[in-house]
């Protein structure tokens, strides 16, 4: 199999028809002998699954994996990676924000000898200022504090070689931040720029909560900086406290008249130190939570139904 296309689906009934037509048009025109489309239904509550199954009846290149519930975008893509058999693998969103027509460019770069060809957003259409701003900030902060060179303004829309997928399958962490893991793996990586379109129809499946979780998975998975930050904040606050202690002692012994009951300074220092401590505990908690979920080692996803059960 030359090419697998992985498409995570969460409530995309309004997009599947057009997506399939555009994808098929592109894939039929590529210089490949065989390809497959792997749809992962991530617990959709609409008619998405029925539509995909319908496609599978008429088109033998269509495969589907139906999850027992919503496990999240990164896990859906991971299931697709586990099940696909292509030598080149494309990950693409179902809402047509990632133009399928770009796959031709990605594939051409792959043929030039690149194992990872990621699509980098030159511009983003139809997304809120808040989303664009937070995404931009996040990618830049992450790039600063991690030792892995994770490209900025890049989602999961990309083409990766079979070599990369086989290594990904060996990486056992439960928290998937695929774009980070792929950057970490290395090999020859290159960007192809594109303009991100508006979502064709329907609503985003990435709620604020899911966005925060993905961001924290990226941060904790690829950087220990937050832990170091807690330490540094501790030192910083202790330094200030030390100076204040000296000041308090001097005042007490030499300037007895100026030592007032001092409610304000007490409140400030108690609240400040308490706040720093809570932040520190919270940061440690984020890491410990991830350690414990990796120790539990539950399966990442549960498959309810599929037409490629032999591969999973
Ligand atoms: N998606 C998914 N599970 C989820 C949320 C989203 O499989 O829990 C899929 C969704 O169907 C789409 C892709 O992941 O194909 C990107 O999601 P979305 O377009 O909602 O995110 P956004 O582009 O708004 O960041
Ligand atoms: Mg989208």
Number of helices: 10
Distance between the termini: 17 Å
Number of domains: 2
Q: What is the residue-averaged pLDDT?
A: 90
> Major β-sheet, in short?
8 strands, mixed
- The first-level CATH class name of the largest domain: Alpha Beta
Number of strands: 8
Biggest sheet strand line-up: 7-5-6-4-1-2-3-8
CATH architecture of the largest domain: Alpha-Beta Complex
Considering DSSP H and I runs of 4 or more, what fraction of the residues is helical?
40-55%
Please tell me about this protein's structure:
This protein is an alpha/beta fold. The protein has two domains: 3-223 and 299-311, Spore Coat Polysaccharide Biosynthesis Protein SpsA, Chain A, CATH 3.90.550; 225-296. It is 51% helix and 17% strand. The chain contains ten helices and eight strands. It has helices at 16-29, 48-58, 73-83, 103-111, 129-145, 162-170, 178-185, 208-222, 225-254, 263-296; strands at residues 3-9, 35-41, 62-67, 88-91, 116-124, 154-161, 189-196, 303-306. It has an eight-stranded mixed beta sheet, with helices on both faces. Helix 1 links the parallel strand 1 (3-9) and strand 2 (35-41). Helix 9 runs antiparallel to helix 10 (263-296). The longest helix is centred in the C-terminal third of the chain and has 34 residues, at 263-296. It binds uridine-5'-diphosphate and magnesium ion. Uridine-5'-diphosphate binds next to strand 1 and helix 3.
């Amino acid at each position: 199999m030359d090419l697998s296309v992985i498409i995570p689906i969460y409530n995309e009934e309004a997009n599947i028809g057009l997506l399939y037509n555009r994808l098929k048009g592109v894939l039929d025109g590529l210089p490949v002998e065989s390809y497959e489309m792997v749809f992962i239904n991530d617990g959709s509550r609409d008619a998405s699954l029925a539509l995909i199954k319908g496609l599978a009846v008429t088109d033998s290149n269509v495969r589907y994996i139906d999850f027992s519930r919503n496990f999240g975008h990164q896990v859906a893509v991971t299931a697709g990676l586990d099940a696909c058999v292509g030598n080149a693998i494309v990950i693409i969103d179902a809402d047509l924000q990632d133009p399928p027509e770009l796959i031709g460019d990605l594939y051409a770069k792959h043929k030039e000898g690149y194992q990872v060809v990621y699509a980098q957003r030159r511009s983003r259409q139809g997304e809120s200022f808040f989303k664009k701003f937070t995404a931009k900030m996040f990618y830049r902060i992450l790039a600063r504090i991690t030792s892995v060179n994770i490209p900025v303004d890049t989602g999961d829309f990309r083409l990766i070689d079979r070599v990369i997928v086989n290594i990904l399958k060996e990486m056992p962490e439960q928290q998937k931040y695929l774009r980070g893991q792929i950057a970490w793996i290395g090999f020859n990586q290159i960007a192809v720029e594109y303009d991100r379109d508006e979502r064709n129809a329907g609503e985003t499946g990435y709620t604020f909560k899911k966005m925060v979780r993905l961001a924290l998975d990226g941060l904790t998975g690829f950087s220990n900086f937050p832990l170091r930050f807690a330490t540094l904040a501790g030192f910083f606050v202790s330094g200030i406290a030390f100076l204040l202690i000296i000041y308090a002692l001097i005042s007490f012994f030499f300037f007895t008249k100026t030592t007032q009951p001092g409610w304000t300074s007490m409140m400030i220092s108690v609240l400040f130190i308490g706040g720093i401590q809570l932040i520190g505990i919270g940061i440690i908690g984020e890491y410990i939570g991830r350690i414990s979920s990796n120790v539990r080692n539950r399966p990442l996803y549960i498959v309810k139904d599929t037409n490629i059960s032999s591969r999973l």
